[in-house]
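INTERNAL AUDIT FORM
Audit reference: QA-55
Scope: verify that the stored structure record matches its stored sequence.
Auditor: D.O.
Record contents follow.
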Amino acid sequence: LKARGSLCPWEIQNDQPCTLKGKSNFMFRISLCLGAVLPDRVRIQDLLSTISDAKETSVVEALGEAILTFGTLLAVCALMNALKGSFSGDVGRMPTGKIESTSTPSSLPRPAKDIERSPSRTTRPQPLSVPIPGTGASVFARLIRAGTASALPETLDKARSCALSKGVRLHSKQLEKIELEHLTSSVCLCAGHHFFQEALRAFDHMEDRIGNGSDTLWSSLLDCAVSASEFHRCKELFERLCSVGAPSGKDFVNMVRFFASERDAAGLCQLLLDLTSLGCKISSLDWNLALQGCISKDAPDLAEILADPKTSDCFAMKVTTISFNLLMRAYMQKGRTSGCFRVFDLMRTAGVPPSETTFGTMLDACVKAKEYGRAKDIFELIKMCGLTPNVVHYTTLMKGFLHAHELEAATVVLEEMLKSSVKPDFIAFAMIINAHSQWGNTGTALQLLEEMISNGISPNDMLFQTVLSSCAVMPTEASQVLDVLAKLIGHGLQPSDITLKYMIKAFVLTKSHDAALNLLQSAPEVFGVQSRLPALAYVELAQSCAELGQGEKAVEVYQVMAKAALAGDVLADARANALLRRHCSSCGQGAAATRLFKMVSKLQRGAFRE
């Protein structure tokens, strides 16, 4: 076979003894190559006589001797059938004797070199007990791979008709076995290609023709039912599975997913009791997959049942740290802090060591529930467990203190980070700088910004603007505001219209109208601001002047805005124009305000050219 090319694509070692496992594997590989071709003119007991000792004769030697007697293809087929029959029960010693063929050489099939190889052969072994060409697993595989799995009921009926035409009796065990094999192959293929509903429709069509079924069939159908969310089928399928065999770990996972979808904690407990009575063995991998399946179905309460050492110890299971962490995160996302700490207690009872992620999740849960004192205790517990807090732990604790308006405590945490081996990242610095800016602590915010730069972290424009905005929170002298601006520009700030807006706010807060007006007049040249200035900045300055009775100063602001609009530096919208007229008129400058209003209105219509 190897000499003939691709018909035998694997390597066969002549020195490998023919053990039971080896023969079964070899039979499976032969069936992969030849599909449904089975012998019909060879007495199998004659071939068995050729293999004198199953434990000492190699497969290749026995095959070679059979080839000399029967011919290439027929011998291979006979060996496949012999191995299939011989290893279904106790092998023992095979009888020896001379081979006596019941067929004449003229009646034997033509040699393998004269037989065309079909490219449509499936890669799956053919499970049929009766040779029915065209109705094997390859037919169903081609159908499913073509995306036409919905035609399975019709194809299964054709396979049944073909079997009846080949002499299989109606209502016989043989026909029942053939149809069971057909349905099992189809369902497994559908499950592999995610045609879950099509597999279930095929089962509905064949349900009364497959007898008691098989464990493989019921297990695959259970998987399809859970994946297709047809949960009304699960209990019946699981009962049928238990009637023909013991459920596997995959079946356990699917049933847990079913109970999690139904939020049926009592059903899950009953399942665990049934599995205990059946003596089922479940691997730790399947147990943790089932637990995580409950979490994915948003059923942390059921996952907690599996995580409880009282339950897992009955099956000698060890829940992993990852599973505990996922369960804690599920409770955290729901805002159920008590659930997080309950899972943490289960984790310690089970002897599972917590990880950095464990404590990070608990800190998040405390902050989300506004239990900031408890968050501080968790942070200390990290050190007690011999772990080193990471940047996430520090940042989460800082966030908790900031939410509690404990700015000093948050700053102390940042200072502790700077002294430790864990260096703060951009998020940690930005969080604390933003907090100080909101409180108007310009000096502290600027100092933290410089500390951030010295640690090799580059601020972005938004963070620069945040520091500058602190000048508009608490009254700051104009000279100090200009100094802050100069330092920020030295650190890399690119001035923009937002920068000017915060500057005007800061000047207005201290009634520094002259400084604000000078800034608006010189902004395009001094700061290189290319974008259009916000018209509302002029409005805010004019309003402040009007409130102090400085009508002439308000009109001057109006004039500066009109000139900037004419130069194209300001987009003077109708709302800003109307507000400026109102503020100037409120302090006795109605005539000048009206003249400027008409001029800006013409400019808006495109009629002003001088």
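Auditor finding: record pair retrieved intact. Residues 1-57, 65-75, 84-135 have pLDDT under 50 and may be disordered.
Action required: none
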